[in-house]
Amino acid sequence: MFITFEGVEGSGKSTQAKLLAELLTKIGHKVTLTREPGWGQLGELIRKVILDERSLELDPFSELCLFCADRVQHVRDFIKPKLQAGEIVICDRYYDSTVVYQGNGRKLDKRLVNKMAKASTLELIPDITFLLNLPVRTGLTRLQSRGDITKMDEEPLEFHELIRQGYMLIAGREPNRIKKINADRDIVEIHNEIRSIAIESISLKSKS
Ligand code: TYD
């Protein structure tokens, strides 16, 4: 079972991914929580290059290639082996982030972005994706109070609006996989909704 979390900056998806991982572990599943970008040796370098090096002006196409390279290694060397061992893998951001950030945000050719993003999954599509939906301003305000700001977070408001619109579009196209969750609520309320959807999907999958 492969579960991913998506959303705009400050939408609380990392908190929710962690809460779901803890809950599923508590009820007896073997769970691995991971995130993108930044898994493994190459991932750490790529993450630094894309998100932290403020002196480096990356071309959007280079950025796309780097996110995809990061994902290929992550899927091949970490996620797939865990799934094959029967674990539940929860990933904080995955290929939908590429589709939306590089396609809608950076305005690269959408067909090319979709193709590369899909190829970088090595045909591993999530069973379920939680899209935490929140007004962009609310998310950015939360981030500022947290203080942990990357290059991407510093993009103008319009960029983040494009990201949110992009997410809404893909959620509309794949309503079975992508579950829109109202993230403008109390953490526990959000968790309860995610928990019941996840548990139902896990039990459906185990029967199929
Ligand atoms: P990060 O600090 O990991 O945090 P968060 O997921 O909480 O925002 O930032 C990762 C950034 O990288 C985020 O701004 C989204 C962006 N990103 C892309 O642009 N494309 C991608 O394919 C992925 C995985 C992330």
Secondary-structure map with pairings?
Layout lengths: L1 E6 L5 H14 L4 E5 L4 H13 L7 H25 L3 E5 L2 H11 L4 H10 L8 E6 L2 H11 L10 H17 L4 E5 L4 H21 L1
Parallel strand pairs: 1-3, 1-4, 2-3, 4-5
The site of thymidine-5'-diphosphate has 13 residues, from helix 4.
Describe the structure.
- There is one protein chain.
- With 208 residues, this protein is an alpha/beta fold.
- It has a single domain, classed as Rossmann fold.
- Helix content is 59%, strand content 13%.
- It is built from 8 helices and 5 strands, in the order βαβααβααβααβα.
- Strands 2-3-1-4-5 form a 5-stranded parallel sheet, with helices on both faces.
- The radius of gyration is 16 Å and the shape is globular.
- The N and C termini lie close together (12 Å).
- The mean pLDDT is 96.
- The structure holds thymidine-5'-diphosphate.
CATH class: Alpha Beta
The gross shape turns out to be globular
Q: Any guess at the CATH architecture? A: 3-Layer(aba) Sandwich
- What ligand species are in this complex? thymidine-5'-diphosphate
Strand order of the largest sheet: 2-3-1-4-5
Q: Summarize model confidence as the mean pLDDT.
A: 96
- Tally of DSSP helical segments: 8
CATH topology: Rossmann fold
